[in-house]
Amino acid sequence: MNYTELQTALADWSARSDLTSFLPSFIEFSTAMFNQGQGGVSPLRLREMMAIASLVPTGGVCTLPDDYLQYRRVVELASRRRDLQYVTPTYADQEYSDRASGLSSDFTIIGSSLYMFPLSSNNIELTYYQAIPNLSDAAPTNWLLTKQPNLYLHAGLMQLAMFTKDNDLFSRSAALVTAFIDGLNSSDTLANLAKAGTRVQGVTP
């Protein structure tokens, strides 16, 4: 299924031929829901969304990627790789009020910036969840539409039902979307856990 076929399916499944001009918006709103969640629908957080970016700090501050949604791991690329721990902006302001320089141990995120504490000039390796790209005539498919066309279909119907105030269609579609997303997120978590081994530190007996 591609972008055009998805619009056709939305029109067919809703039995509405008068909403053609609105269908692109319903699909765009669906993608935003997958990225950020909506109401009782959780956001998607799958391994296909994960990416690694190298960030170059200025005065201990890095600009996050444009498609950033959520961090997974933050590593300072010093002589030895250093995992940084997240702290709240309030904690960072109180604990590092002198803005001293040195190897970082903590970080916080404010707006579109990542702040390292203590301030460091070392690059950051950021593992993060990136936003699912929007569909369009110029970009007629993405990995999620290829993997789960039914999710896009029912999410689009959910947005359409909100627009037309069709409570029955909304309830059915929202239930399906919630089940799809919860199932995908759970399966992804289980897949990651299944691959995790156990490593014991210390001297081998």
Explain how this protein is built.
- By secondary structure, the protein is of the alpha+beta class.
- Helix content is 40%, strand content 20%.
- It has helices at 3-14, 23-36, 89-95, 143-147, 149-164, 167-195; strands at 50-55, 61-63, 68-77, 81-83, 85-86, 106-110, 113-117, 124-130.
- A four-stranded antiparallel sheet has the order 1-8-3-4, with no helix packed on it.
- Strand 5 (85-86), helix 3 (89-95) and strand 6 (106-110) form a beta-alpha-beta unit.
- Helix 2 (23-36) crosses helix 5 (149-164) and helix 5 (149-164) packs antiparallel against helix 6.
- It is elongated, with a radius of gyration of 21 Å.
Please outline the helices and strands.
Elements: H1 3-14, H2 23-36, E1 50-55, E2 61-63, E3 68-77, E4 81-83, E5 85-86, H3 89-95, E6 106-110, E7 113-117, E8 124-130, H4 143-147, H5 149-164, H6 167-195
Parallel strand pairs: 5-6
Antiparallel strand pairs: 1-8, 2-7, 3-4, 3-8, 6-7
Annotation keywords:
single chain; 4-stranded antiparallel sheet; 8 strands; elongated
How many individual helices? 6
Radius of gyration (CA) equals 21 Å
Mean pLDDT across all amino acids: 92
Q: Sketch the topology as an H/E string, one letter per element.
A: HHEEEEEHEEEHHH
Shape, please?
elongated
Fraction of residues in H or I helices: 40-55%
End-to-end Cα distance = 56 Å
**Into which percentage range does the β-strand content fall?**
15-25%
Q: How would you characterize the largest beta sheet?
A: 4 strands, antiparallel
Query: Which residues form runs of ≥5 with pLDDT under 50?
Result: none
